[in-house]
Specification:
By secondary structure, the protein is α/β, with parallel strands linked by helices. The protein has one domain: Metallo-dependent phosphatases (Purple Acid Phosphatase, chain A, domain 2, 4-Layer Sandwich), CATH 3.60.21. It is built from five helices and 13 strands. α1 packs parallel to α2 (about 45-55), α2 packs parallel to α3 (about 70-80) and α4 (about 115-125) runs parallel beside α5 (about 155-165).
């Protein structure tokens, strides 16, 4: 299965349109969007940004980010692409989603306690599932800010350590574009699409294992 991983679009419609042109040639089997579709914008903006990627005609799963407006999660539900606090299957593989972020110093729109993150994972996850989380796991390449501090979710990290999902796709920390490993788990922060970044992931759905990750730029 070929997965296009996207995060942190922040309302940049032109970047979504440009990505559509690339993906028309790449022909992924699935698109994963790890949140912050808008930059504190509402459902109308989110819909415009999502339409080019939905026009590709391949399955798309998304979670909202901490900077998405209050009505964005409802839009994702209406579009039947929401993965927040639920488990869905595509191409024989399970996916579990966590929207928003762990608590930040900035009091953004969608923030979750570590207990809430843990509950979502415990309730929905089945062995071999891929996790789509706006917030990255703590103390990885994917959660390090410019100052060097690691600001990711401790609950997500502990869950990964205990359950070893094959793949975690995340975002949130713009400067932490990376591929990392935590045990057998591959962690991918594609980097923000508003800066032209995305990732292509080759996933073996039979073995439930990542075969390859390419960090790409438009």
């Amino acid at each position: 299965m070929r997965i296009a991983a996207v995060t942190d679009i922040h309302g940049k419609l032109e970047k979504a349109k440009k990505l559509l042109g690339v993906l028309e040639e790449e022909r992924p089997d699935l698109i994963l969007i790890a949140g912050d579709i808008t930059n504190f914008g509402g459902a109308e903006i989110a819909r415009k940004v999502l339409e080019p990627l939905m026009d590709l005609g391949v399955p798309l799963l998304a979670v909202h980010g901490n900077c998405d407006g209050r009505d964005v999660p409802e839009l994702l539900e209406k579009l039947r692409i929401s993965l927040h606090n639920k488990r869905r299957e595509a191409n024989g593989t399970g996916f579990v989603g966590i929207g928003g972020s762990n608590i930040t110093p900035f009091n953004t729109i969608w923030e979750l306690t570590e207990d809430e993150i843990r509950e979502i994972l415990t309730k929905n996850y089945k062995p071999g599932d891929i996790i789509l989380s706006h917030a990255p796991p703590k103390d990885t390449k994917a959660d390090r800010v410019h100052s060097g501090l690691h600001v990711g979710s401790t609950a997500l990290r502990k869950f990964i350590e205990g359950n070893q999902p094959p793949l975690v796709v995340t975002g949130h920390i713009h400067e932490a574009r990376s591929v990392d490993e935590l045990g057998k788990t591959v962690i991918v922060n594609p980097g923000p699409l508003f800066r032209g970044y995305y990732a292509l992931i080759e996933f073996d759905e039979k073995r439930k294992a990542v075969k390859n990750v390419d960090l790409e730029k438009l």
